[in-house]
Amino acid sequence: MGYTLEFKEQVIKEFKSGKTITELSDKYGIAPSTVFFWNKYFENDNRYTKYPHGDTLTCTELTTKVRALTKETKELKELISKLEKRIAELESIKSRISSLIQK
Fold first, then answer.
1. For residue 25, which of 32, 47, 68, 95 is within the disulfide window of CB 3.0 to 4.6 Å?
2. pTM, to two decimals
């Protein structure tokens, strides 16, 4: 079963406020190992991962970055498609000009 980021953050917030893994496991019907796993990944003040240069980002910040990069990728693909069409048009024009010059 997939859990939302908000749900995971809520469980870990309760864990950090003093509830035990067993209490949370029973309360939410999730395996104790799942709570342990989530806590491991939300260590360092709810920070999820580190960039090689040392910056840390929350899951929410990572999600925002992924969405922005996905949008940028889509825009770049659209631009590439337009450029490819324009290149084909220019090659066609070049071919017509070459044939006119040869006459």
1. 32
2. 0.43
What's the one-letter identity of residue 76? L
Rounded CA-CA distance 4/89 in Å is 48
Out of 1.10.760, 1.10.3120, 3.40.50, 1.10.10, the CATH code matching 5-102 is 1.10.10
- CA–CA distance, 47 with 53 (Å, rounded to integer): 15
CA angle 7/13/18 to nearest 5° reads 135
56, 71, 6, 12 alpha-carbon torsion, rounded to 10°? -20
Domain spans, the chain: 5-102
Instruction: Give Cα separations from 35 to 18, 43, 62, 63, 83 (angstroms).
Output: 13, 12, 21, 21, 49
